[in-house]
Amino acid sequence: MIFSGRAHKVGAHIDTDAIIPARFLVSTDPLELGKNCMEGLEPGWIQRIDEGDILVAGENFGCGSSREHAPLAILGAGIKVVVAHSFARIFYRNGFNMGLTLVEIGPEVEKIADGDRLQVDAANGAVIDETAGVEIAAKPVPPFMRDILDKGGLVEYVKARLAA
Amino acid sequence: MGATVAEKVLERHRIEGDVVPDRIIRCRVSLVLANDITAPLAIKSFKAMGAEEVFDRERVALVMDHFTPNKDIDSAEQVRGVREFAREMGVVNYFEGGQAGVEHALLPEIGLVGPGDVVIGADSHTCTYGGLGAFATGMGSTDIAAAMALGETWFKVPPTIRVEMTGKLPEWVGAKDLILKTIGEIGVAGALYKALEFGGEVADELDIEGRLTMANMAIEAGGKAGLFPADAKALEYAKAHGHAASEEIHPDPDAVYERVVRIDASSLAPQVACPHLPDNVKDVGEVDTRIDQAVIGSCTNGRITDLREAADVLRGRKAADGVRLVVIPATPAIWRQAMEEGLYEIFLDAGAVIGPPTCGPCLGGHMGILGAGEKAVATTNRNFKGRMGHLDSEVYLASPAVAAASAVTGRITNPADL
After folding, report:
1. Model pTM?
2. B147, B10, B225: which is closest to A154 by C-alpha?
């Protein structure tokens, strides 16, 4: 799984209320939610996002609520991968379950500047910043979670279990 | 090697894997929970999984509490979908209307969760039940759907941070101040992927409601769970509320902790978490801010002891001109109890609005939304930017006593100064 796109940077402790405020939780449609992605961080944020952009965040991205609407809103906004210093626990699990790729790289995230061209190799755990000319190693995904991903996500994993 | 409370509870429910920090295990679950925001997505995933029935009709709880009584047509339609699913599946523990309360106050009260349980809920504050010695944690809707179908889930076993609380609590200082102080010490990401274990003489002294308040906010330090030991007090509470737990669970003396955080209760002042993160914590005396609204309620502090504490401060006093005081008992039983104890007379004389049990303003849902530039003091658990309404509003988190005292003066106030 290799993604390439433009880095779109946000700060540390971006919470789920910033990603998708509570007033929008009366929908479960990713495209509908995507229209309001990051509305709690900056109204109209979505206007600056192009399909394929890569979200780059600081520490503890996705802290707060368990709302799965948060990764859905990011996917609905046309973003397929988030690179961060670290992720909040529930968000990390939700991301994988929803098919949003999450890559954790620790403090080296600071080497990436807003607007840099990135190449993210999620399977091998590497982020290449083509603009800055640096390669950053990512933390490996735990084997159990990789197994769920390989089976096509949690829905497919359970479907297979129930059919067995 | 000794085990922590979290490790002991997980061991009881383990299906596969070793209960060793950072290893992945499969576990049976005691109860699976979702609410009116998260259940609709869980039902969508459940159906996509091809599941036709829930693993156990009595061990799924669906509590309609966030946008209820329904605030608009969209939220009414969401609840309608969950209601139909509950009927179709024969889910016994479906709650709405006059049976519903704020989920994390309701479930302990009716004995659906208790000591030694493993509980997962599609709500981040599911960690509340750690107050009773349960391993309880929040997950997303699809994880909840999988557990509704299979009766099990997977966990990465968290390392434990021990919070050792010593000394004696001064007057007007309680559980909320202890947890705010703890989050201030650890930081909002300090317990990421870890469990918090609360102990020490202050933990032993705290009543169950105070323990639920503390465990509730473990997630605010990034924690996966927050647990108290299941001691005699927890078992007595469980028994009185119809839960079957009978065995005490204490950490081993040689349990291994990643870190020990020490809190000296004797020197603690009432605490306030200032905008816009729960770890931006200060002594109440360092915060002098005017407020437009005070909210007393939520899964953190909407229980009867919280309402009594607020009433003790408000008795014979009035909310300041221009301050909206909102009181929301967390469950129907608490509502009734407060009425019978005469607390509502005190609140109404103080000029309060008393709401029905709902999560309402806590998440910026309804019944107390803030406009631009407005500031609120709330007994809730999050003060993220725009959490209670407009992006340019502010939320200060505090205890029921501080919220009540602040309503009286119109500024963030130490109840001892009234």
Report:
1. 0.97
2. B147
